[in-house]
Amino acid sequence: MHSFKNTARIAAFVRGFFLFLDTRNVKSAVLHGGENGFEEELTDVDFVVDPAGFKRLTRLVSEYCEQSGWRLCQVLRHEDTAAFCVCCPLDDPRCAVALDACTDYQRNGAVFIESDELLANRAMLDWGGHALSKATELKYRFIKAVAKKKDIESLLEEIAEYDESEIIDLKRWLREKWGRENVDLEGSALQDLIVGLHAETQRNLLLRPQKWWRVLMRLMMPTGACVVTGEGEEARRFCEDFSSLYFRGVVKTRQIVMKDLSDVVRTKLVITSCRPGKLMRMLMRGNVFVASENESFEAWLQKRVMRREGLAHN
Predict the structure, then answer these.
(1) CA dist 254 to 140, 231, 232, 300, Å?
(2) What is the domain class of 4-132 according to CATH?
(3) What is the pTM of this model?
(4) Average pLDDT along the chain, 314 residues, taken 10 residues at a time
(5) Pair type for strands 225-228 and 105-107
(6) CA distance 83 to 76
(7) Where are the chain's structural domains?
(8) Burial status of residue 241 (CB atoms within 10 A of its CB: 0-12, 13-18, 19 or more)
(9) What single-letter DSSP state applies at residue 277?
(10) How far is it, in rounded angstroms, from Cα 146 to Cα 193?
């Protein structure tokens, strides 16, 4: 849990980022929340940007971090049109937040709602950023529930938060975009609608070259890391500082084996007190951090991102 000081620091950083995007002529909108200026416990912020802005997203995030006294430490690309950018202040890796960007909202290659539609009729927030319009927000939340086959009870609670005019607009959208006539947003009818739309939007990922390209990039440039450090307090500090947000879990091991290589590919943090042999270091492709030989781990992560994203001269 963030301290009050860190909560305020993260909120200021996130607000400043969206204002910075405006100065770079990039249209953006928070996908949900943000009305209170992010003055709350916050780990990640979901937002949409226009396609041109997304193409230079990591450069924009890096530039903003540099002028704000922060650093970009991780970029995780979980979809063709999405990127999860983990940032922290230069002096405190525990005060971290992820800027989770998308253009078109898609899952597993299926596009559910395009960026132009998400950004249409944006609503201005009191602190200067933008959010989705209420009607668009309902469409986004509904189609996200379809993508994840969400439980209808929680979806019904979400729908109840909106005005009748916004619900009517959702039904019109479902008719015009998805061919669903006389939509009933209650009980078993809603369940059937969710299941039917989910099935309709499934794609054969094996036929998508983008999927295989992402897999190849993860193999060539894993987003996990192997940390060689002392036992006890030092290892515990790495777990506490970097176990969440930066990575998708922590693995502690005495000796590096092939399984640990696959963990690094799967964006896990592997912590060991035993230096890997030459073969494993070669297979890890430069993703081994030896605490006794390097500067801070977060600085090492930043350099890795800068190199991979072509930002070395930013």
Answers:
(1) 46, 10, 13, 23
(2) alpha beta
(3) 0.90
(4) 77 98 98 92 95 97 97 91 96 95 87 94 96 96 90 91 96 94 90 89 59 64 88 83 90 85 90 81 81 88 93 63
(5) unpaired
(6) 6
(7) 4-132, 145-220, 222-308
(8) middle
(9) P
(10) 9
